[in-house]
Amino acid sequence: MNYKHKHLEHEDKKIYDIYIAGRTSAALAAAVRIGLFDLLREKPMSETEIIKKLGFYKRPMKALLLVLRAMKLIVRKDEAEST
């Protein structure tokens, strides 16, 4: 059986959405695995407190927090107060 490329309208967006879905699900899985949501359920914490409590380096944790904010799974206090 032969395969061929299926032309989709807005093909770039469809491919991008599929790509991003994998990335966001990986971020969600990582956050669950390290206990981030459990930690934040206890009380709101600063980035610095989260990093110290979970024992991670600053750069990857900042990236994870940014992705989770983009997914609207967490909010910063200033964002929560403005909504």
Describe this structure in words.
This protein has 83 residues and is mainly alpha-helical. It has a single domain, classed as Orthogonal Bundle (Arc Repressor Mutant, subunit A), CATH 1.10.10. Helix content is 70%, strand content 0%. The chain is elongated.
At a glance:
The protein is mainly α. It is built from five helices and no strands.
Q: Give the DSSP E fraction (strand runs of 2 or more residues).
A: under 5%
User: How many structurally independent domains?
Assistant: 1
H/E order of the elements? HHHHH
Give start-end ranges of low-pLDDT stretches.
Answer: none
Q: What is the level-2 CATH architecture name? A: Orthogonal Bundle
Q: Give the CATH class.
A: Mainly Alpha
Helix content: 55-70%
Mind telling me the C-alpha Rg?
17 Å
Given helix and strand content, the structural type is mainly alpha
Average pLDDT for all residues = 87
Instruction: Sum up the overall morphology in one term.
Output: elongated
How many H/I helices? 5
* Ends distance: 54 Å
What's the total count of β strands?
Answer: 0
